[in-house]
Design goal:
The complex is a heterodimer of chains A (about 375) and B (about 325). By secondary structure, chain A is of the alpha+beta class. Chain A folds into two domains: about 5-50, no CATH class; about 60-385, Cytochrome-c3 Hydrogenase, chain B (Orthogonal Bundle). Helices cover about 50% and strands about 15% of the residues of chain A. In chain A, a hairpin with a 2-residue loop joins strand 6 and strand 7. In chain A, helix 5 (about 105-135) runs antiparallel to helix 12 (about 270-295) and helix 5 packs antiparallel against helix 15 (about 370-380). The longest helix of chain A has about 30 residues, at about 105-135. Chain B has about 325 residues and is mostly helical. Chain B is about 65% helix and about 0% strand. Chain B has helices at about 1-30, 50-60, 70-85, 105-115, 115-125, 130-160, 165-170, 185-200, 225-250, 260-285, 290-320. The radius of gyration of chain B is 20 Å and the shape is globular. The chains are: A alpha+beta (about 375), B mainly alpha (about 325).
């Protein structure tokens, strides 16, 4: 086990110098929301880092107690607003686990479909903002950012025609999904996947042959396998450090077992490895989306009747936990039901929250410029950190 | 009196050109990023946008931080701008079309343009802001590191032409532009472009602005017209260095019909625009590199390379003129 305490403040042998304490955030272009880093600098090098969160706290878990099972999925999407489908799915899966509610096969496949599309949209945002962090809003980073937004836009258009919303969907409901695919949607989705696959090749050509990009990401922010497991990071970060773990394969939910996909793992543990993992996940996601569209079973989309009133769904007394693999890692929802239309208690396990805990371990010793590169490669969403 | 009028005209022409360079850059970047760019202000294609920006910045509130070092803070934009404008005094746009064609023109250019760092440091120091302080620390590092290879690359055409006078350097390129000289010319031009980007503080060397780390670096506290002056100074410097590149490597005003000063100036501006767009192209396709990597590139790669190149040029010139057997 690595000595975690010792890593917080490192001695740099920089005798006689003054240390500068600098605040980065909560209002900062690269804060990815509202995150405050208190950096202790020796020249350009970071000697220690402290992080302050909570600027976006909205009492989500208390809110969950006051809203019914029919209402909350639309609010769940506001925890991780970049990957809204994921948290909705975790919530309804937890409720279904308690109530032992069957979900029709078609609905299960639709859930996989939107989850993977969401992963693509979310990773588009990650790539764009990460390059923006490294390259600046007035440089090459902005170019990648706008390219990524062009692709993300396509996916959001698909979501818009599916659910009527572009960011916060309310697609899931207890027992299935709320909407079915509209006419011609499947073909549009296939076309979009073709475009995205082609654009991914372009990105890789553009970035991986770019020396400036390589020197900024390779060997920066290395997370060892032991440290990754010790701190409890999840998702692409964990797989970038050589831990082969993905809930979709190791604890399948919503018939992920029906599909054939690979879990990309890289061993270097630096920003570049995390980049490689996510780039490969892009491709795997588009592969899964195609498989879902090819073999989508006919049938009902929900085992429950369509929602007419907010108190319609009741879950029997019990406790349940569900976890899903979101774009940022494990998203978990823990519910205690008391038999009524609302849960008695709820708790979120946000992937960004636990991923953020890695920062004080890896940031010291790097330069100021690397902080934003590391931060971008962690890809936190503060709606999910603070909830 | 005549000189004063000429200087006045030149000053305004340069400021106008520089204002529109921002527009060119925004349109160019927009094309690269599959956008349209400024479109709303002025038809066609939003051509009044730079004017609108200037008016907006003029009428904005001027904010001075409470703990700023006021004289230094207020003077900095001016100190930053003046060297950038002064460099145009010695640039010949066409035969006879320039303020002062000094016989040490290039020396004057290099000396004055490196004064910029003073204004920059004043801006960062006077702001009394930690981001600004870090930014000027980087700036001093970077500009001193890149001034050396920049001067060395600029010396290569001087050696080839055998003169420090900018118009004489252009005349020496009448047969063959220096960029077209086999091997030496191309390598020197590439080194010049790299050093140019670094001295202009543009991506991938824009660590002093570094808006994703240091928010806006040394100008983080500036607003309104002072911000506009700093911005103007940066673009003026950029245009000045593009002009220098044109004079040193691309044959200045030489081109079809360049005997007439009007055509000469057109050729000159087109070539300067080419260099400007080359730098812009690099800017919008690279990510920023880190301060230690920038210094490493300067001292470990660029400096030895330009030194060797300069020596090779010297030997070649000496050999071809028969001084070395």
């Amino acid at each position: 086990m690595p000595d975690l305490e010792a890593r917080k403040v490192i001695e740099l042998g920089y005798g006689g110098s003054e240390r500068l304490v600098m605040n980065m955030g909560p209002q900062h272009p690269s804060a990815h929301g509202v995150f405050r880093m208190i950096l202790t600098l020796e020249g350009e090098t970071i000697a220690a880092m402290d992080s302050v969160i909570g600027y976006l706290h909205r009492c989500h878990e208390k809110l969950g107690e006051t809203l019914t099972y029919a209402q909350y999925p639309s609010i769940a999407s506001k925890t991780d607003y970049v990957a809204a489908m994921t948290s909705e799915l975790a919530y309804v899966l937890a409720a279904e686990n308690i109530g032992k509610i069957e979900v029709p096969k078609r609905a299960q496949h639709l859930r996989v479909l939107v989850a993977e599309l969401q992963r693509i949209a979310s990773h588009c945002l990650w790539l764009g903002t990460w390059c923006l962090d490294m390259g600046g809003a007035l440089g090459g980073g902005a170019t990648v950012f706008l390219y990524c937004f062009r692709e993300r836009e396509n996916v959001l258009d698909l979501f818009e025609s599916l659910t009527g919303a572009r960011l916060l969907y309310g697609f899931h409901q207890v027992g299935g999904t709320r909407y079915d695919l509209p006419e011609g949607w499947a073909q549009r989705c296939r076309d979009t996947m073709t475009v995205i696959d082609r654009r991914l090749d372009e990105y890789e050509d553009m970035l991986e042959t770019n020396t400036a990009f390589q020197v900024r990401s390779q060997g920066v922010g290395v997370v060892s396998r032991e440290l990754a497991q010790e701190v409890g990071i999840a998702g692409p970060l964990l797989r970038g450090s050589g831990v082969d773990f993905d809930i979709r394969r190791d604890d399948p939910y919503s018939s992920y077992g029906d599909f054939d996909f690979r879990i990309p793992v890289e061993t270097a543990g630096d920003c570049y490895a995390r980049y490689r993992v996510r780039m490969q996940e892009f491709r795997e996601s588009s592969k899964i989306v195609r498989q879902v569209l090819d073999g989508l079973p006919e049938g009902p989309i929900s085992s429950k009747p369509a929602l007419k009133s907010v108190g319609q769904v009741r879950i029997p007394k019990g406790e349940g936990y569900a976890r899903v693999e979101g774009p940022r890692g494990e998203v978990g929802c823990y519910l205690i039901a008391d038999g009524g239309p609302k849960p008695y208690r709820m708790k979120w396990r946000g992937a960004s929250f636990s991923n953020l805990a890695i920062l004080p371990h890896i940031v010291p010793g790097h330069k100021v410029a690397d902080v934003v590169a590391i931060m971008g490669s962690v890809d936190p969403v503060f709606g999910e950190v603070d909830r | 009196m005549r000189d004063v009028i000429a200087a006045f005209i030149l000053l305004n022409a340069v400021v106008l050109i520089v204002t529109y360079l921002t527009y060119v850059e925004r349109k160019f970047a927009a094309r690269m990023q599959s956008r349209i760019g400024p479109y709303r202000v002025g038809r066609p294609h939003g051509w009044l946008q730079p004017i609108a920006d200037a008016i907006k910045l003029l009428i904005k509130e001027d904010i001075i931080p409470a703990l700023a070092d006021r004289p230094v803070y207020n003077l900095a934009p001016i100190v930053f701008l003046i060297p950038s404008l002064l460099i145009f005094a010695t640039i010949p746009f066409a035969p006879g079309l320039g303020l002062a064609d000094l016989n040490i023109g290039i020396l004057f250019f290099l000396a004055v343009s490196s004064l910029e760092i003073v204004g920059l440091f004043m801006a960062g120091w006077g702001s009394n802001n930690k981001y600004a302080l870090l930014s000027v620390m980087r700036a001093v590092n970077q500009i001193i590191s890149y001034e050396v290879p920049f001067v060395l690359t600029a010396l290569i055409p001087v050696v080839l032409a055998g003169s420090l006078q900018l118009s004489a350097i252009v005349e020496a390129q009448r047969g063959l532009w220096f960029v077209a000289y086999p091997v030496i010319g191309q390598l020197a031009f590439v080194a010049f472009i790299v050093a140019t980007i670094a001295s202009e503080n543009r991506v991938p060397f824009d660590i002093l602005e570094a808006e994703s780390e240091l928010v806006a670096g040394f100008r983080v506290e500036y607003s309104g017209m002072k911000f506009a002056l700093i911005q103007l100074a940066e673009y003026t410097h950029m245009f000045g260095v593009s002009c220098l590149g044109t004079l040193l490597f691309l044959g200045g005003w030489l081109g079809p019909g360049s005997a007439h000063p009007g055509w000469g100036a057109v050729w000159f501006l087109l070539k300067a625009l080419f260099i400007f767009l080359l730098v812009t192209w690099v800017r919008w396709s690279f990510v920023r590199i880190r301060v230690d990597q920038i210094l490493g590139l300067s001292w470990k790669v660029l400096l030895p390379a330009t030194l060797i190149l300069l020596m090779a040029t010297g030997f070649w010139v000496a050999w071809s003129s028969g001084h070395v057997a």
